[in-house]
Amino acid sequence: MDVRFYRCPMSIESRGSDPLLSTYSLPMTALPNRVVMAPMTRLRADLEGVPSELMATYYAQRAGAGLIVSEGIAPSVRGQQYLNEPGLFTEEQVAAWRRVTDAVHAAGGRIFAQLMHSGRNGHPLNRLDGGRPEAPSAVALTAPLHTVDSKVAPVVPLAMTRAGIRTTVAEHARAARNAVRAGFDGVEIHGANSYLVHQFLADNTNLRTDRYGGSTANRIRFAVELTEAVADAVGAGRVGLRLSPGNPENEMAEADPAPVYRRLLAALDPLGLAYLHLTDDPVYPALADLRPFWSGTLVGNTGEHEETTRDSAARLLRARRADLVSIGRPYMANPDLVERIAADAPWAPLRSSSHYDSGPAGYTDYPAHPASLPAGTPVSAAA
Predict the structure, then answer these.
(1) Can you give the residue ranges of the NADH:flavin oxidoreductase/NADH oxidase N-terminal domain (predicted)?
(2) Out of 6, 58, 82, 195, which one is annotated catalytic?
(3) Of 296, 349, 359, whose CA–CA distance to 324 is shortest?
(4) If 0-12 CB within 10 Å is exposed, 13-18 middle and 19+ buried, where does residue 210 land?
(5) How confident is the model over 281-330, as pLDDT tens digits?
(6) What is the DSSP string of 185-211?
(7) Is 363 known to be catalytic?
(8) Is the model's pTM score more than 0.90?
(9) CATH for 13-323?
(10) pLDDT tens-digit series, residues 26-78
Protein backbone atom coordinates (compact mmCIF):
# COMPACT_ATOMS: atom_id res chain seq x y z
CA MET A 1 0.00 0.00 0.00
CA ASP A 2 1.35 3.44 -0.94
CA VAL A 3 -0.06 6.55 0.73
CA ARG A 4 3.12 8.68 0.78
CA PHE A 5 1.54 11.49 -1.24
CA TYR A 6 -1.28 12.11 1.24
CA ARG A 7 -1.12 13.69 4.64
CA CYS A 8 -3.36 14.78 7.49
CA PRO A 9 -4.66 18.35 7.72
CA MET A 10 -2.43 21.20 8.83
CA SER A 11 -2.25 22.17 12.47
CA ILE A 12 -5.12 24.07 14.05
CA GLU A 13 -2.96 27.20 14.41
CA SER A 14 -2.75 27.61 10.63
CA ARG A 15 -6.39 27.10 9.73
CA GLY A 16 -7.75 30.59 10.21
CA SER A 17 -11.49 31.11 10.62
CA ASP A 18 -12.85 28.59 8.11
CA PRO A 19 -15.59 26.71 10.01
CA LEU A 20 -14.88 23.53 8.06
CA LEU A 21 -11.36 23.45 9.49
CA SER A 22 -12.21 24.03 13.14
CA THR A 23 -11.88 21.16 15.59
CA TYR A 24 -14.77 19.21 17.10
CA SER A 25 -15.17 16.46 19.68
CA LEU A 26 -17.56 13.54 19.48
CA PRO A 27 -18.24 11.66 22.74
CA MET A 28 -15.29 9.30 22.20
CA THR A 29 -13.45 10.77 19.21
CA ALA A 30 -11.66 14.10 18.76
CA LEU A 31 -11.88 15.43 15.19
CA PRO A 32 -9.29 17.80 13.65
CA ASN A 33 -11.90 19.34 11.33
CA ARG A 34 -15.64 19.25 10.64
CA VAL A 35 -15.57 17.49 7.28
CA VAL A 36 -17.03 13.98 7.24
CA MET A 37 -16.44 11.67 4.31
CA ALA A 38 -19.92 10.30 3.59
CA PRO A 39 -20.49 6.57 3.04
CA MET A 40 -20.34 5.60 -0.62
CA THR A 41 -20.77 2.14 -2.19
CA ARG A 42 -17.67 1.24 -4.24
CA LEU A 43 -17.85 -2.60 -4.51
CA ARG A 44 -14.14 -3.42 -4.28
CA ALA A 45 -14.49 -6.39 -1.90
CA ASP A 46 -14.19 -9.94 -3.24
CA LEU A 47 -17.14 -12.24 -3.86
CA GLU A 48 -16.97 -13.44 -0.25
CA GLY A 49 -17.38 -9.89 1.03
CA VAL A 50 -13.75 -9.68 2.15
CA PRO A 51 -12.21 -6.19 1.84
CA SER A 52 -9.30 -5.91 -0.58
CA GLU A 53 -5.87 -4.38 -0.01
CA LEU A 54 -6.91 -1.70 -2.50
CA MET A 55 -9.59 -0.61 -0.04
CA ALA A 56 -6.92 0.05 2.58
CA THR A 57 -5.16 2.37 0.15
CA TYR A 58 -8.43 4.13 -0.78
CA TYR A 59 -9.46 4.92 2.78
CA ALA A 60 -5.95 5.84 3.95
CA GLN A 61 -5.66 8.33 1.09
CA ARG A 62 -8.73 10.11 2.54
CA ALA A 63 -7.59 10.09 6.17
CA GLY A 64 -7.48 13.90 6.23
CA ALA A 65 -11.25 13.92 6.79
CA GLY A 66 -12.34 14.76 10.30
CA LEU A 67 -14.19 11.45 10.16
CA ILE A 68 -14.57 8.78 7.49
CA VAL A 69 -17.79 6.80 7.37
CA SER A 70 -17.17 3.62 5.42
CA GLU A 71 -19.22 2.34 2.54
CA GLY A 72 -22.23 0.26 3.53
CA ILE A 73 -21.17 -3.02 5.15
CA ALA A 74 -23.48 -6.03 5.36
CA PRO A 75 -24.07 -6.96 9.02
CA SER A 76 -25.03 -10.50 8.00
CA VAL A 77 -25.50 -12.65 4.93
CA ARG A 78 -29.21 -11.91 5.23
CA GLY A 79 -28.48 -8.23 4.78
CA GLN A 80 -26.33 -8.47 1.66
CA GLN A 81 -27.19 -6.33 -1.35
CA TYR A 82 -24.26 -7.34 -3.57
CA LEU A 83 -21.83 -10.25 -3.51
CA ASN A 84 -18.82 -7.92 -3.69
CA GLU A 85 -20.14 -5.63 -0.98
CA PRO A 86 -17.95 -5.93 2.12
CA GLY A 87 -19.30 -7.65 5.22
CA LEU A 88 -18.61 -7.84 8.94
CA PHE A 89 -19.97 -11.29 9.68
CA THR A 90 -17.00 -13.61 9.06
CA GLU A 91 -13.56 -13.75 10.66
CA GLU A 92 -11.93 -13.26 7.24
CA GLN A 93 -13.88 -10.05 6.77
CA VAL A 94 -12.98 -8.78 10.25
CA ALA A 95 -9.28 -9.48 9.67
CA ALA A 96 -9.32 -7.71 6.31
CA TRP A 97 -11.09 -4.68 7.77
CA ARG A 98 -8.35 -4.52 10.42
CA ARG A 99 -5.86 -3.88 7.60
CA VAL A 100 -8.06 -1.01 6.41
CA THR A 101 -8.50 0.60 9.82
CA ASP A 102 -4.81 0.19 10.64
CA ALA A 103 -3.94 2.02 7.41
CA VAL A 104 -6.38 4.86 8.20
CA HIS A 105 -5.08 5.23 11.74
CA ALA A 106 -1.46 5.13 10.57
CA ALA A 107 -2.32 8.04 8.27
CA GLY A 108 -3.82 9.94 11.22
CA GLY A 109 -7.49 9.34 10.43
CA ARG A 110 -10.65 8.16 12.16
CA ILE A 111 -13.20 5.78 10.64
CA PHE A 112 -16.69 4.50 11.49
CA ALA A 113 -18.21 1.40 9.87
CA GLN A 114 -21.63 1.88 8.30
CA LEU A 115 -23.86 -1.14 8.92
CA MET A 116 -26.22 -1.49 5.96
CA HIS A 117 -28.99 -4.10 5.68
CA SER A 118 -30.50 -4.18 2.20
CA GLY A 119 -33.99 -5.36 3.13
CA ARG A 120 -36.10 -5.58 -0.02
CA ASN A 121 -33.22 -4.20 -2.10
CA GLY A 122 -31.50 -7.59 -1.93
CA HIS A 123 -31.73 -10.55 -4.32
CA PRO A 124 -30.95 -14.29 -3.99
CA LEU A 125 -28.25 -13.99 -6.66
CA ASN A 126 -26.51 -11.37 -4.53
CA ARG A 127 -26.39 -13.41 -1.33
CA LEU A 128 -23.77 -15.96 -0.40
CA ASP A 129 -26.51 -18.28 0.84
CA GLY A 130 -28.86 -17.65 -2.10
CA GLY A 131 -31.62 -16.70 0.33
CA ARG A 132 -34.64 -14.57 -0.42
CA PRO A 133 -34.51 -11.02 0.95
CA GLU A 134 -36.56 -10.04 3.98
CA ALA A 135 -38.31 -6.73 4.57
CA PRO A 136 -41.00 -5.24 6.81
CA SER A 137 -43.67 -6.30 4.32
CA ALA A 138 -43.89 -8.39 1.15
CA VAL A 139 -43.62 -5.35 -1.15
CA ALA A 140 -41.24 -5.67 -4.08
CA LEU A 141 -39.35 -3.08 -6.03
CA THR A 142 -40.37 -2.69 -9.67
CA ALA A 143 -37.03 -1.62 -11.20
CA PRO A 144 -34.43 -4.25 -12.19
CA LEU A 145 -31.58 -5.01 -9.77
CA HIS A 146 -27.87 -5.36 -10.55
CA THR A 147 -26.11 -8.67 -10.03
CA VAL A 148 -22.51 -9.61 -10.79
CA ASP A 149 -23.42 -10.71 -14.32
CA SER A 150 -26.51 -8.75 -15.35
CA LYS A 151 -29.65 -6.91 -14.34
CA VAL A 152 -32.50 -9.09 -13.08
CA ALA A 153 -36.10 -8.66 -12.04
CA PRO A 154 -36.59 -8.01 -8.31
CA VAL A 155 -38.18 -10.65 -6.11
CA VAL A 156 -40.97 -10.20 -3.60
CA PRO A 157 -39.29 -10.12 -0.18
CA LEU A 158 -40.42 -12.21 2.73
CA ALA A 159 -42.26 -10.24 5.40
CA MET A 160 -40.08 -10.42 8.50
CA THR A 161 -41.44 -12.45 11.39
CA ARG A 162 -41.02 -11.35 15.01
CA ALA A 163 -38.25 -13.94 15.31
CA GLY A 164 -36.65 -12.59 12.14
CA ILE A 165 -36.71 -9.08 13.56
CA ARG A 166 -35.03 -10.24 16.77
CA THR A 167 -32.40 -12.08 14.73
CA THR A 168 -31.72 -9.01 12.58
CA VAL A 169 -31.31 -6.80 15.64
CA ALA A 170 -28.89 -9.32 17.16
CA GLU A 171 -26.93 -9.51 13.88
CA HIS A 172 -26.44 -5.74 13.90
CA ALA A 173 -25.19 -5.85 17.49
CA ARG A 174 -22.77 -8.65 16.62
CA ALA A 175 -21.55 -6.78 13.53
CA ALA A 176 -20.97 -3.69 15.67
CA ARG A 177 -18.83 -5.71 18.05
CA ASN A 178 -16.97 -7.13 15.04
CA ALA A 179 -16.39 -3.58 13.81
CA VAL A 180 -14.75 -2.62 17.09
CA ARG A 181 -12.62 -5.78 16.95
CA ALA A 182 -11.65 -4.78 13.41
CA GLY A 183 -10.37 -1.44 14.70
CA PHE A 184 -13.18 0.89 13.70
CA ASP A 185 -13.64 3.91 15.95
CA GLY A 186 -17.40 3.39 15.89
CA VAL A 187 -20.35 2.36 13.73
CA GLU A 188 -23.07 4.14 11.84
CA ILE A 189 -26.48 2.48 11.42
CA HIS A 190 -27.81 3.03 7.90
CA GLY A 191 -31.40 4.12 8.42
CA ALA A 192 -31.60 6.10 5.17
CA ASN A 193 -31.82 5.86 1.38
CA SER A 194 -34.32 2.98 1.14
CA TYR A 195 -32.48 0.40 3.28
CA LEU A 196 -34.09 -1.78 5.95
CA VAL A 197 -34.56 0.76 8.75
CA HIS A 198 -35.97 3.25 6.25
CA GLN A 199 -38.32 0.56 4.96
CA PHE A 200 -39.83 0.22 8.44
CA LEU A 201 -40.34 3.99 8.62
CA ALA A 202 -41.83 4.57 5.16
CA ASP A 203 -45.49 4.42 4.16
CA ASN A 204 -45.33 2.12 1.15
CA THR A 205 -42.85 -0.47 2.43
CA ASN A 206 -44.31 -1.02 5.90
CA LEU A 207 -47.84 -2.40 5.66
CA ARG A 208 -47.66 -4.31 8.92
CA THR A 209 -50.54 -4.43 11.38
CA ASP A 210 -48.53 -5.70 14.37
CA ARG A 211 -46.45 -3.71 16.87
CA TYR A 212 -43.96 -2.78 14.13
CA GLY A 213 -46.45 -1.08 11.81
CA GLY A 214 -49.50 1.15 11.62
CA SER A 215 -49.15 3.94 14.19
CA THR A 216 -46.17 6.27 14.34
CA ALA A 217 -45.12 4.72 17.64
CA ASN A 218 -45.07 1.30 16.01
CA ARG A 219 -43.32 2.39 12.81
CA ILE A 220 -40.32 3.69 14.72
CA ARG A 221 -40.07 0.65 17.00
CA PHE A 222 -37.64 -1.34 14.84
CA ALA A 223 -35.28 1.64 14.47
CA VAL A 224 -35.35 2.25 18.22
CA GLU A 225 -34.80 -1.39 19.19
CA LEU A 226 -31.96 -1.82 16.70
CA THR A 227 -30.21 1.39 17.78
CA GLU A 228 -30.54 0.50 21.46
CA ALA A 229 -29.09 -2.96 20.83
CA VAL A 230 -26.09 -1.59 18.92
CA ALA A 231 -25.52 1.06 21.60
CA ASP A 232 -25.65 -1.63 24.29
CA ALA A 233 -23.15 -3.71 22.31
CA VAL A 234 -20.41 -1.12 21.81
CA GLY A 235 -21.44 1.97 23.78
CA ALA A 236 -23.70 4.78 22.63
CA GLY A 237 -20.73 7.11 22.17
CA ARG A 238 -19.49 4.85 19.38
CA VAL A 239 -22.81 4.78 17.48
CA GLY A 240 -24.16 7.13 14.80
CA LEU A 241 -27.43 6.89 12.89
CA ARG A 242 -28.07 8.08 9.35
CA LEU A 243 -31.58 9.11 8.26
CA SER A 244 -32.98 10.62 5.04
CA PRO A 245 -36.59 11.68 5.75
CA GLY A 246 -38.69 11.94 2.61
CA ASN A 247 -36.01 10.53 0.31
CA PRO A 248 -37.80 8.80 -2.63
CA GLU A 249 -34.79 6.69 -3.64
CA ASN A 250 -35.68 3.16 -4.78
CA GLU A 251 -39.40 3.95 -4.88
CA MET A 252 -39.78 4.95 -1.23
CA ALA A 253 -42.84 7.02 -0.25
CA GLU A 254 -43.34 9.10 2.90
CA ALA A 255 -46.35 11.39 2.68
CA ASP A 256 -45.69 13.22 5.96
CA PRO A 257 -42.22 12.51 7.37
CA ALA A 258 -42.24 15.13 10.14
CA PRO A 259 -44.32 13.31 12.81
CA VAL A 260 -42.47 10.03 12.29
CA TYR A 261 -38.96 11.44 12.48
CA ARG A 262 -39.72 13.89 15.29
CA ARG A 263 -40.97 11.00 17.39
CA LEU A 264 -38.01 8.83 16.42
CA LEU A 265 -35.53 11.50 17.47
CA ALA A 266 -37.39 12.08 20.73
CA ALA A 267 -37.00 8.37 21.50
CA LEU A 268 -33.30 8.21 20.55
CA ASP A 269 -31.99 11.55 21.79
CA PRO A 270 -31.66 10.38 25.43
CA LEU A 271 -29.31 7.55 24.41
CA GLY A 272 -26.38 9.92 23.93
CA LEU A 273 -25.34 8.66 20.49
CA ALA A 274 -22.14 9.85 18.85
CA TYR A 275 -24.15 11.71 16.21
CA LEU A 276 -27.21 11.89 14.00
CA HIS A 277 -26.35 11.95 10.28
CA LEU A 278 -29.22 13.68 8.51
CA THR A 279 -29.77 14.10 4.78
CA ASP A 280 -31.83 17.12 3.74
CA ASP A 281 -34.61 16.90 1.16
CA PRO A 282 -35.98 19.55 -1.22
CA VAL A 283 -39.59 18.74 -0.26
CA TYR A 284 -39.14 18.15 3.48
CA PRO A 285 -36.43 20.39 5.01
CA ALA A 286 -35.25 17.82 7.52
CA LEU A 287 -32.22 19.73 8.79
CA ALA A 288 -34.29 22.79 9.70
CA ASP A 289 -37.27 20.88 11.07
CA LEU A 290 -35.47 18.22 13.12
CA ARG A 291 -32.56 20.17 14.56
CA PRO A 292 -34.62 21.28 17.60
CA PHE A 293 -35.41 17.64 18.39
CA TRP A 294 -31.74 16.57 18.62
CA SER A 295 -29.51 17.75 21.45
CA GLY A 296 -26.39 15.89 20.33
CA THR A 297 -24.05 16.20 17.38
CA LEU A 298 -25.76 16.61 14.00
CA VAL A 299 -23.98 15.74 10.76
CA GLY A 300 -25.67 17.49 7.85
CA ASN A 301 -25.74 16.40 4.22
CA THR A 302 -27.36 18.13 1.26
CA GLY A 303 -25.86 16.05 -1.51
CA GLU A 304 -29.06 14.21 -2.44
CA HIS A 305 -30.50 17.32 -4.12
CA GLU A 306 -27.73 19.94 -4.06
CA GLU A 307 -24.13 19.33 -5.06
CA THR A 308 -21.94 19.99 -2.07
CA THR A 309 -19.34 22.69 -2.51
CA ARG A 310 -16.93 24.32 -0.09
CA ASP A 311 -19.25 27.33 0.18
CA SER A 312 -22.46 25.32 0.69
CA ALA A 313 -20.79 23.16 3.34
CA ALA A 314 -19.49 26.19 5.22
CA ARG A 315 -22.92 27.86 5.04
CA LEU A 316 -24.48 24.83 6.69
CA LEU A 317 -22.14 25.23 9.66
CA ARG A 318 -22.44 29.01 9.89
CA ALA A 319 -26.24 28.72 9.91
CA ARG A 320 -25.93 26.20 12.76
CA ARG A 321 -28.02 23.71 10.81
CA ALA A 322 -25.28 21.13 11.48
CA ASP A 323 -22.18 20.64 13.61
CA LEU A 324 -20.36 18.60 10.97
CA VAL A 325 -20.87 18.35 7.21
CA SER A 326 -20.67 15.09 5.25
CA ILE A 327 -19.41 15.22 1.68
CA GLY A 328 -19.85 12.29 -0.68
CA ARG A 329 -19.08 12.25 -4.39
CA PRO A 330 -16.42 14.99 -4.35
CA TYR A 331 -14.42 12.73 -2.02
CA MET A 332 -14.17 10.12 -4.76
CA ALA A 333 -12.10 12.43 -6.95
CA ASN A 334 -10.40 14.41 -4.18
CA PRO A 335 -8.64 12.17 -1.66
CA ASP A 336 -7.03 15.34 -0.25
CA LEU A 337 -10.32 17.25 0.02
CA VAL A 338 -9.62 18.81 3.43
CA GLU A 339 -6.15 19.83 2.30
CA ARG A 340 -7.67 21.43 -0.81
CA ILE A 341 -10.09 23.34 1.39
CA ALA A 342 -7.21 24.56 3.56
CA ALA A 343 -5.17 25.58 0.51
CA ASP A 344 -8.18 27.10 -1.29
CA ALA A 345 -7.41 24.75 -4.19
CA PRO A 346 -10.02 23.69 -6.78
CA TRP A 347 -11.82 20.37 -6.49
CA ALA A 348 -11.11 17.80 -9.19
CA PRO A 349 -14.02 16.54 -11.33
CA LEU A 350 -15.33 12.99 -11.04
CA ARG A 351 -14.83 10.29 -13.66
CA SER A 352 -18.27 8.77 -13.26
CA SER A 353 -17.79 5.80 -15.61
CA SER A 354 -15.46 4.02 -13.18
CA HIS A 355 -17.36 4.23 -9.88
CA TYR A 356 -17.86 0.48 -9.55
CA ASP A 357 -14.98 -0.99 -11.55
CA SER A 358 -12.99 -3.70 -9.80
CA GLY A 359 -9.55 -2.10 -9.96
CA PRO A 360 -7.75 1.14 -9.05
CA ALA A 361 -9.15 3.17 -11.97
CA GLY A 362 -11.50 5.81 -10.64
CA TYR A 363 -10.76 4.60 -7.12
CA THR A 364 -7.18 5.06 -5.89
CA ASP A 365 -5.70 6.80 -8.95
CA TYR A 366 -7.04 10.31 -8.27
CA PRO A 367 -3.96 12.42 -7.46
CA ALA A 368 -3.57 15.12 -4.85
CA HIS A 369 -3.43 18.80 -5.79
CA PRO A 370 0.08 20.35 -5.75
CA ALA A 371 -1.00 22.95 -3.19
CA SER A 372 -2.04 20.27 -0.71
CA LEU A 373 1.21 18.32 -0.79
CA PRO A 374 4.21 18.67 1.54
CA ALA A 375 7.17 20.59 0.20
CA GLY A 376 9.41 18.47 -1.98
CA THR A 377 6.72 16.02 -3.11
CA PRO A 378 7.26 14.87 -6.74
CA VAL A 379 5.09 16.77 -9.19
CA SER A 380 3.97 13.45 -10.71
CA ALA A 381 2.01 12.77 -7.52
CA ALA A 382 -0.23 15.79 -7.98
CA ALA A 383 -3.16 16.66 -10.19
Answers:
(1) 29-344
(2) 195
(3) 296
(4) exposed
(5) 888 999 999 999 999 999 999 866 678 899 999 999 999 999 999 999 99
(6) SEEEEEE-TTSHHHHHHSTTT----ST
(7) no
(8) yes
(9) 3.20.20.70
(10) 999 999 999 999 999 999 999 999 999 999 999 999 999 999 999 999 999 99
